[in-house]
Amino acid sequence: MVAIAGLLVAAACGGGATGGSGSTAATGPAIKIGVLDDQAPLTAVEGAEMRVNTDLAIAQINASGGIHGHKLEAVYADPKATPDQAITLAQQLVQQQGVDVLVGAVLSSECLGVENLVPRLQVVYVSSTGCAAEDFTAKQCNQYSFRITPQGRQVNIPLSQYIVNSYGKKWSIIYPDYAFGQSQLAAYKVGMQAAGGELTQIIPIPQNETNMTPYISKITTDGSISGLINTEVGADLVRASQTLAQFNIGAKMPIVGVFGKERFAGTYPDSLTGDIGQSPELSDPPTENKYDAAYHKAFTEQLKKEDANIVTALGGVDKAVPGDLGYEAYTAITSLKLAMNQSSFTGKADTQKLIKAMEKLKVKQGADFPGGDFQMNASDHQGVATTYIAKINKQQEQVLATLAPDKLSLIGTCTAK
Amino acid sequence: MALLIVALFAIPPLYGQFLPQRVQNYLIFGLPALAVGLIAGHARLLNIGVGATFGVAAYTVAIVAHHVTFNPFVLMVASLASGVIVSVLFAVYAVVATGIEYLLLTLLTTAAFASLPLLATNLTGGENGLAIPPQGAVVVSFGLDPIQGNGFYWLLCFITVFWCALSSYLLSSRAGRAMVAIGRNPVRAAAMGYSVHGYQVAVTLYSGLIAACGGWLYAIGNTFVSLDLLGLTNSVNAVLYSLIGGVDTIIGPLLGTIGLRFLSEYSGMQSTQSQLYVGFALLVVVYLLPAGVIGGLRQLWLLRLRFRAQGVPEGEEPLAATLAREGGFDATFGGVTDE
Amino acid sequence: MGESVAVAALNGLVVGASLALVAAGLSLLFGVLGILNFAQGDFFMLGAYAVWLALANGLGFWLGVAAAAVVVGIAGGLGLMAMLWPLRDRAHALVLLATLALSLILQQLASNVFGADAKPVAAPIDARIPIGSHDYPVYDLVVVAAAAIILAGGFVFLKYVRYGIWLRAVAQNQRMASVLGVPVFRVYALTFVISLGLAAVAGSLLAPLVSVYPTVGLDINLNAFIVVIAGGLGNFRGAAAIALALGVVEALGAIVIPGQAVQLVVFGFVIVLLIVRSQRQRVLVRL
Asked: Which of A39, A376, A395, C148 could disulfide-pair with A361, CB 3.0 to 4.6 Å?
């Protein structure tokens, strides 16, 4: 019989500000959050960010009294980047471990599989780090599933407007030739068209292609192209960036799409200087944002308490940053906290009340959402948030524009019911 | 064996606490492992393509359910038929190639199959996977809910016992023994008048049908399919389960599936290093249990007989003990040897 | 168009040279010992980490390549030999299982020690040569040259050097070679060392092109297997030739056909080749 694997989070860590007003001791049975945290080497960075930020958020919530006197308890399971394991473990977490809410699953195929399951399990499911597939809220949405961080065309369309206005109308795009990349391509096509630009050169790259030279060398560099959009992720992103640097593409045109120090163990490679990207959370917080500064400080303190493997995956205590990967996990838990408080959630029996409260979430920048404002869209359960367009300059990120939540596009026409 | 079957049907539902759902999953993945055991352990054709058969059958269910109908009988027939069609390809390989080349053909074909859904993402969902819509979730499984109640679990038990019983019967039949003889020495079997290719094609199609059945059950049980079902990982896993359990037995592959999947799930709940534990567990099996768990138990039993037979006059000891004493059981290391 | 074809042809040489380096070691191991090493890609990964470590510690790129060849080749080769030696008379399946287990362990250990993120590795040569409107990296051409030198060296070794001749003898008929006084055990050890050394050198040379992360070996393995199969199992020269051909075909094909379809075409081609070849009588292994 499998032992129940719980990760009881210590309360009152020495971290930053929380939303609570005191340190009322938490009483009553714990509210269990089942976390599908992929720790396979393929998803180790995402898994590590999810672990640290989930632990941090829960520790802060428990330190300020929990949810109406109930502590939060994370129950972790590792699907090892395998959809069938994610589905099995999701079921096990709910039916055997008795968790009240599910979060996590990094790969799109995992989170889509779990999303398809939750209407039958009848628990709220909030995606955390990863889960970038538009389909999650654009096509396959249901009343139990939520996504906090904006994805795909929500940000690509306004970003397209910005880059066409700033740099020109004709763009090349390289994209990974599978569902995520294809949805990115579709989003940029729509965005470019709306902005009066066009994707003049479209270069698909097979997934996990080890040598990108044949693809990068196709990029036109005769001055007829205004810039390049790079939608690669993970190791493909690093490879593409390296190869782009070798072909000196960055010196000839702006490159859009790469962002987030956490993807590079806390340190941007020099070759990325000049690249432009978007994110709801900057790698280094602007000095005037006290909430983000407190969040980063708390993240570092929490990291010191984690396993050595987690720390190594993120580049070490001195360099690790939450970035948008970590922010996704942090705000998944803080949004649940806010909705649980609002709905007086005590367990699975209150799921419908929790759903209603999640649908009404509208939060100003603060301790729970240190990056910026946030709002949940009730129709498709997709969140919108303040998004920054920034340029990388060695290790700095210079903010070029700030998009308020209402400036982001709808992700689709799905109705969550 | 009867006790085991009764225990399988009765204990998990009585125990509850997610055990039936967990065993369900083991049984589903145990079927392709059983298929590997038959084709690799008995027929000595190391086929890495079982995962492709499983995956194609699962995808067929999802595609037909997503785009055409939820009718469970149509889905079952379509799924099994698609799996058998894939098996025809592997049967052709069995005729045209042998040994390492046969293995490599099945490996390459399985790798190619993993890319196929990416060419038609509207139909297959690409690497996002494809879900059976919630309104069809229980309809496709004959009204038996895979996540509630025990009906689906008992269906799985019945199907698993059926395939095990049928396979056991076929192996003990004349045709089965001919197939085993062909596996051990095809030249000798051909000289004795057996149609080597005929038997190889038959066992490939039969094992493909079992693997396809697993794929069908996976799709209706999980209502979601993804690329990894088609890839090498799933295929190699089936081979691992079979080798670990004992590839030349009927029950061994099922035990191997239970053991390795349980280890993987349990270590995933306890640690971030589960891949490391699985790797070391495999090495333990390779060096200490090369005949698999069942093979190892069998050897222990024969050793026990041997020790008990020491001191018994010749002619009075049991045959098994004689064989153990004279080392007559050294032939089957996991059922696949370099003869 | 002409510029595109020229660039694509160069790309093909780069891709082919990369594949040839990786496949050469795999082919050697299979030719002499009949071992299909599922962990070959993970020694490629270790070679890439060797050069990354060297750069991170200020030791220079080429020193990292040398370290990859020597340290990973010798330690890895002898370690793998120790691991597989007890299984030499056992079933293929057990050897496959052992190398698969090793692959899982190496990936997890690499993730624990180095972190799971993909690390960029700067090429040692930052120059480019203009080809039309393209600035083609000189380092890519260095990779082609290095691969050519290594493979030519391998050919010379196998043809003219005593140990190379012994290696071929053992591959053709181990018992006869042993009877004739060839030190078979030493030849086996050398095979392991050279095979893994080649994989590590490939990893270190290609690190600036593919970056380095714990699972890079998985992405490399399948391509290497395809080349070895297509070139003829145990055929060192065949593997190199097929690698170059496949590289050029893939690069030129990518001009007009989507990448995913090109991969499937390659799979299909190799499958047909394997079927046709298996219909002919197996000849002695040629290295």
From this structure: A376
- In this prediction, residues A7-22 reach a mean pLDDT of 32
Which residue, among A176, A165, A86, has the nearest Cα to A128 in the 3D structure?
A86
Q: A72-82, pLDDT tens digit by residue?
A: 999 999 998 88
The structure's pTM equals 0.85
> Rounded distance, CA C61 to CA C205, Å?
9
Q: How long is chain B?
A: 339
Q: Does domain C2-278 have CATH number 1.25.40?
A: no
Pairwise CA distance, residues B47 & B139, whole Å: 34
Report the alpha-carbon distance of residue C263 to residue A209 in Å, rounded. 10
* Helical H segments across C34-161, by residue range: 40-56, 61-67, 77-84, 92-114, 138-160
Q: Domains, chain B, ranges and CATH?
A: 2-273 (1.10.3470)
Chain C: nearest CA to A351, how far in angstroms? 36
Lowest mean pLDDT among A17-21, A156-160, A288-292, A302-306: A17-21
CB atoms within 10 A of CB A391: 17
Residue-wise pLDDT tens digits, B85-117: 999 999 999 888 887 788 888 988 998 888 888
Burial of B69 by CB count in 10 Å (0-12 exposed, 13-18 middle, 19+ buried)?
middle
Q: Give B-chain residues touching A54 at CB under 8 angstroms.
A: none
Could you give the CA distance from residue C199 to residue C25 in angstroms, rounded to a whole number? 6
pLDDT of residue B315: 55
Domain boundaries along the sequence of chain C:
2-278
For residue C3, the model assigns a pLDDT of: 66
Partners of residue C259 in chain A, C-beta under 8 Å: 177, 204-206, 209, 215
Which one of B128, B147, B223, B267 makes the best mutation probe of the A interface by having the most chain A beta carbons within 10 Å?
Answer: B128
- Report pLDDT for A179: 77
Q: Which residues contact A264 (CB under 8 A, 6 or more apart)?
A: A238, A272, A315, C117, C120
Best to test chain A binding among C3, C108, C211 (most A CBs inside 10 Å): C211
Query: How far is B250 from B255, CA to CA, in rounded Å?
Result: 10
Distance (Å, whole) CA B245 – CA C39 = 23
Q: Give the pair of three-digit tokens for residue B87.
A: 């098996």
Nearest by CB to residue B115, choosing from C86, C263, C279, is C263
Q: Distance between CA A298 and CA A371 in Å, rounded? A: 14
A240 has which bridge partners? Answer: none
The b/e string for B276-297 (b: 16+ C-beta within 10 A; e otherwise) is bbbbebbbebbeebbbbbbbeb
Task: Give the residue carrying structure tokens 């395809």.
Answer: C226
Give the relative orientation of helices B19-36 and B151-172 as an angle to the nearest 10 degrees: 20
DSSP B252-313: HHHHHHHHHHHHHHHHHHH-S-HHHHHHHHHHHHHHH-TTHHHHHHHHHHHHHHHHHHTTSP
The size of the B-C interface in CB pairs under 8 A is 116
- Tell me which residues of chain C have a pLDDT lower than 70: 1-3, 232-234, 254-260, 280-287
Higher pLDDT, residue B162 or B228: B162
Query: CA–CA separation, B118 vs C209, rounded Å?
Result: 25
Q: Which chains touch B (3 or more CB pairs under 8 A)?
A: A, C
